[in-house]
């Protein structure tokens, strides 16, 4: 291959990566979660060397993350205060670093694949899954746009989620992609010479596709958990306070008034306010306001859960506090966001360029008991924490409800909000628990234990989502084993599909 033709495969890979974002919310074309890996699988099988495979993987990753996490630019430029050029450079570098993971997988596939369809399919799916899993914890982790999230309901693969979790769904989706690529290859690229048997050439990959989809559909009818106790009336408050005004001291009273009014207009046994809904340290709030919040909760014989920083100017935590008929309790966010909530070593200069208030939080303990409020055992997680399924299950099986407090106003009207809601769908599926989301600007929602969104507020509106919600008890296989089965399966497939020795 020479000339301009050399750039066609990387260009095709980049376009595939960009198109893959359509598999995720808000588009929800989940079948693209199989077709896009099919295209990458076909391209990688034609790569002539490990270097070529790495280039294809990198190009794919640039398209995947460049489109799918474009909201990072909004955060850095619009709300972080970086000049547009610097924000663009920082976003491009961020996406390029993330693209190194598919580049590594592409290199390994092209360098050590065996060459037969079955071995190649297993090797490809294993490398895809392990690359995503590695990305979920290396350098504190960034498991956004994991392929398995695209397989939230109504995808037939969603039935596997309570067993193998989101990385298991990635493994299955990648396997489906490889099988689809092989079906198309056998039908159109190297069809059987005998036209009478042409339909039977792709029998093995077709049977594999049918078996995986049918299995997911059957498993989707299983219920691993069941409602427990009486339903509780909940009110999830969405204050829609503009991010550029929220942290101004002179606007504090405005935020307090907004949530006071929403509480009065939407009484409930369990009221939930978003992450840092009250933009001041808990100890600095006017006592009369705290007393008023307590009165709201006591009037309903219930509890109020609200996001608020706790500590002082030197050491402070991103927390959720409860007040009401139950004893006052506190949850402190343990998995912090690099650059947004803590300063990685050597990067203070970068934070100095931005205008992010309270950007050096102290993490809470890794394991914190559920909050006993409103007659439920509530596993609280704050914003970004719900992308780490293996951490969410630390509070299970004791917890009956999952509650997420978020403030995605940092990302404006972008893909971040619907993508984050889709992540919550997988957490509900994995745990067999409803997920309640109270957010500042969206998407405030109730996700059922089956992973389906039962109700949601329109983003960028000021309102409350009120509903009756039941807690759930029981243990899914994922709660018991976490990501171990999916990662172990990927490692076994890696051994089964790759060459023992490099060429």
Automatic annotation (TrEMBL):
GO terms for cellular component: plasma membrane. Pathway: Protein modification; lipoprotein biosynthesis (N-acyl transfer). One of its GO terms (biological process) is lipoprotein biosynthetic process. GO terms for molecular function: N-acyltransferase activity. It is an enzyme of class 2 (transferase). InterPro entries: Apolipo_AcylTrfase (IPR004563), C-N_Hydrolase (IPR003010), C-N_Hydrolase_sf (IPR036526), LNT_N (IPR045378). Its main location: membrane. It is a multi-pass membrane protein. The chain crosses the membrane at residues 12-44, 56-74, 86-110, 117-138, 158-181. Keywords: Acyltransferase, Cell membrane, Membrane, Transferase, Transmembrane, Transmembrane helix. Residues 237-471 form the CN hydrolase domain. Pfam families: CN_hydrolase, LNT_N. It is found in: Cell membrane. Its EC number is 2.3.1.269. Catalyzes the phospholipid dependent N-acylation of the N-terminal cysteine of apolipoprotein, the last step in lipoprotein maturation. NCBIfam families: lnt (TIGR00546). Belongs to the CN hydrolase family. Apolipoprotein N-acyltransferase subfamily. This is Apolipoprotein N-acyltransferase.
């Amino acid at each position: 291959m020479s000339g301009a033709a050399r750039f066609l495969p990387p260009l095709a890979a980049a376009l595939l990566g960009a198109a893959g974002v359509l598999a995720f919310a808000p588009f929800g074309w989940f079948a693209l979660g199989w077709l896009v890996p099919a295209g990458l699988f076909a391209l990688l099988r034609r790569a002539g060397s490990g270097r070529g495979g790495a280039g294809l993987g990198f190009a794919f990753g640039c398209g995947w993350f460049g489109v799918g996490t474009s909201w990072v630019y909004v955060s850095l430029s619009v709300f972080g205060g970086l000049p547009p050029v610097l924000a663009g450079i920082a976003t491009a570098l961020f996406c390029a670093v993330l693209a190194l993971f598919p580049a590594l997988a592409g290199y390994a596939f092209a360098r050590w694949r065996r060459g037969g369809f079955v071995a190649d399919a297993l090797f490809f799916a294993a490398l895809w899954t392990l690359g995503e899993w590695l990305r979920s914890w290396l350098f504190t982790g960034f498991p956004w746009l994991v392929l398995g999230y695209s397989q939230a309901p109504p995808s037939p693969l969603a039935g596997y989620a309570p067993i193998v979790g989101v990385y298991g769904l990635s493994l299955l989706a990648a396997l489906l992609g490889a099988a689809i690529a092989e079906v198309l290859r056998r039908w159109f690229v190297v069809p059987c010479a005998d036209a009478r048997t042409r339909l039977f050439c792709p029998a093995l990959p077709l049977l594999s596709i049918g078996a995986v989809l049918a299995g997911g559909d059957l498993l989707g009818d299983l219920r691993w958990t069941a409602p427990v106790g009486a339903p509780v009336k909940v009110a999830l408050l969405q204050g829609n306070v503009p991010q550029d005004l929220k942290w101004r001291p002179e606007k504090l009273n405005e935020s307090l008034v907004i949530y006071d009014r929403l509480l009065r207009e939407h009484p409930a046994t369990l009221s939930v306010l978003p992450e840092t809904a009250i933009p001041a340290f808990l100890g600095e709030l006017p006592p009369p306001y705290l007393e008023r919040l307590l009165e709201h909760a006591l009037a309903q014989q219930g509890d109020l859960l609200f996001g608020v920083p706790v500590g002082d100017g030197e050491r402070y935590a991103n927390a959720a506090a409860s007040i009401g008929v139950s004893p006052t309790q506190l949850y402190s966010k343990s998995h912090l966001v690099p650059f947004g909530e803590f300063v990685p070593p050597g990067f203070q200069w970068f934070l100095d360029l931005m205008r992010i208030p309270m950007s050096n939080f102290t993490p809470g303990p890794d394991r914190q008991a559920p909050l006993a409020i409103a007659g439920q055992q509530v596993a609280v997680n704050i914003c970004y924490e719900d992308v780490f399924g293996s951490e969410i299950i630390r509070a299970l099986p004791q917890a009956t409800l999952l509650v997420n407090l978020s403030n995605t106003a940092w990302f404006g009207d972008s893909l971040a909000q619907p993508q984050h809601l889709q992540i919550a769908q997988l957490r509900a599926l994995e745990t067999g628990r409803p997920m309640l989301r109270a957010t500042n600007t969206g998407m405030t929602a109730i996700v059922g234990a089956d992973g389906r969104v039962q109700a949601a507020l329109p983003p960028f509106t000021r309102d409350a989502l009120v509903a009756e919600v039941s807690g759930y008890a029981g243990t899914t296989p994922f709660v018991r084993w976490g990501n171990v089965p999916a990662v172990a399966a990927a490692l076994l497939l890696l051994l089964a599909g790759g060459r023992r020795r490099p060429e």
